[in-house]
Amino acid sequence: MEGLKVWRLSSSISRPSSFRQLFGLGSSSCLILRCSDGGAATTSNTRLPSRNLRSSTSTSTSDREAVRAIRLKKVEQLRSKGLEPYAYKWDRSHSARELQEIYENLNNGEELDSESHHVSIAGRIVARRAFGKLAFLTLRDQTGTIQLYCEKERLLNDQFEHLKTLVDIGDILGASGSIKRTEKGELSVKVDSFAVLTKSLLPLPDKFHGLTDIDKRYRQRYVDMIANPEVADIFRKRAKIVREIRKTVESQGFVEVETPVLQGAAGGAEARPFLTYHNSLGRDLYLRIATELHLKRMLVGGFEKVYEIGRIFRNEGISTRHNPEFTTIEMYEAYSDYQTMMNIAEEIVTRCALAVHGKLTIDYQGVEIHLERPWRRETMHNLVEEVTGIDFTELGNDLKVAKDVILKALGVGLDIKDKFSIESCPSLGHLLNEVFEIFVEPKLLQPTFVLDYPMEISPLAKPHRRIISS
Q1: How many degrees, rounded to 5, is the angle at CA 126 between CA 121 and CA 127?
Q2: Where is the stretch described as Disordered (predicted)?
């Protein structure tokens, strides 16, 4: 049984410098897809300006606390008027997108005031303008935005004054009323009544002009989604991808299982584990670094096709491209080899692309990526020779000589970090992989299966049936 390591799906907002979603084959009977969950990703490379950093941070914190104190007073004012600023429920009849679609053909200046066109919506206030006895608020829910058209004469009691003095940008409101399209063409809900459903205690980032602090965008993804609503689309696409993966593999007879996250030994990969302590058992346990070993035990127990979508934890580097916790989709099938797994990988990715984009040609950072099958299949040795001109099979078994040849041929222009990585390689297999990662990976723009990884970097892999060193 031979294996496959496939595709990294990023839900992170960051964009790598090149399309490094390439495919690599080892040799165990499995398919592995790594999915980076940007919900917790952080970056160690982000550097905030050091100039006046302490002063600006202190001022920012002071401003936030002042705003919070003011809004807490508004919470008290609402409660003193018998209004609960944190509601239990709101009956919503439509989403913003539904209203935009239903009343797409409503003419400018036209109003529908009958009972059949009375609607109820809810969402976050992201903008507001007030002109005497008239106020306009932009309400956004998860589907889009719509305008609230608020007239003093139309609202009961002191609601208009409450709207002007107690409602802030960032609050979540429920509103009901009729449908109107303004003279300027803005579809609006002409508000009869409203209620504060959740009072926001802090202002939206950067006065709703967008959250630009990269570090904060990764550490507070919920704030990022408020300030940059397009970010939520990444999460929705990721959900579609995971759903399509399940549909694809289960249509081929695979059974989904769950294996232990806490393990007595960290196995199935080469990685540094997180260590924890189990009080009842009185022993150390590790957060898993792979699902491999327990899935293989499922095969031993009699299952012939199993897979798991599972969380993995590796106590290693952290950046916008590497997260200490991430998701893998790992599959095992009896009586098959890596040729079968490559076919399954093609099927999964093409079906996911169709589910998300509706086509197999995707524009990525100005480059057209073609996902039509079949994809290119090439060995790591051949790809390295193709890009660098160096045939590793002719370098012999002397590691020092091989390093000297590599650095002499490719060392010009290499940065210190890459030179050190090459010089630190403990074996020819590691050296081949290092050259591949530095020189070949950035050039692999189209879907490519990379075959015959060296044995030194393929733990638990079965030796190649024909090539001894792979």
Answers
A1: 105
A2: 43-62
Q: Are the beta carbons of 405 and 377 closer than 8 angstroms? A: no
Relative to beta strand 144-151, strand 134-141 is antiparallel
Contact 436, 421 (CB under 8 A): no
Cα–Cα distance measured from residue 278 to residue 308, given in angstroms and rounded to the nearest whole number: 25
Burial per residue of 65-98, b for 16 or more beta-carbon CB atoms within 10 angstroms, e otherwise: eebeeebeebbeebeeeebebebeeeeeebbbeb
- What confidence category does residue 91 fall into, taking pLDDT thresholds of 50, 70 and 90? very high
The Cα 132–Cα 300 span in angstroms is 76
Q: 43-72 pLDDT, tens per residue?
A: 333 333 444 444 444 556 788 899 999 999
pLDDT in tens, 406-441: 999 998 888 999 999 999 999 999 999 999 999 999
Question: What residues are paired with 23 via a beta bridge?
Answer: 6, 449
Q: Beta strand 30-36 with 325-333: parallel, antiparallel or unpaired?
A: antiparallel
* CATH of the structural domain 53-206, one choice from 2.40.50.100, 3.30.565.10, 3.40.50.300, 2.40.50.140: 2.40.50.140
Q: Is the peptide bond before 374 cis (omega within 30 degrees of 0)?
A: yes
Give ∠ CA 446-450-452 in degrees, rounded to 5. Answer: 170
Question: Nearest to residue 32, comparing CAs of 465, 403, 411, 458?
Answer: 458
What amino acid occupies position 388? Answer: T
- Structure-token pair, residue 92: 């919503």
Domain 4-44+231-375+449-457, what fold?
BirA Bifunctional Protein; domain 2 (3.30.930)
Write down the pTM of the prediction: 0.75
Kindly provide the b/e burial profile for residues 10-42, where b requires at least 16 CB atoms within 10 angstroms of the residue's own CB: bbbbeeeeebebbbbbbbbbbbbbbbbbbeebb
What's the angle, vertex CA 450, arms to CA 30 and CA 337, rounded to 5?
35
How is residue 86 annotated by DSSP?
Answer: B
Helix (H) or strand (E) run with residue 39 in it: none
* Distance in angstroms (rounded) separating the CA atoms of residues 310 and 288: 10
Q: How far apart are CA 405 and CA 400, in angstroms?
A: 9
Q: Where are the domains of the chain?
A: 4-44+231-375+449-457, 53-206, 392-445
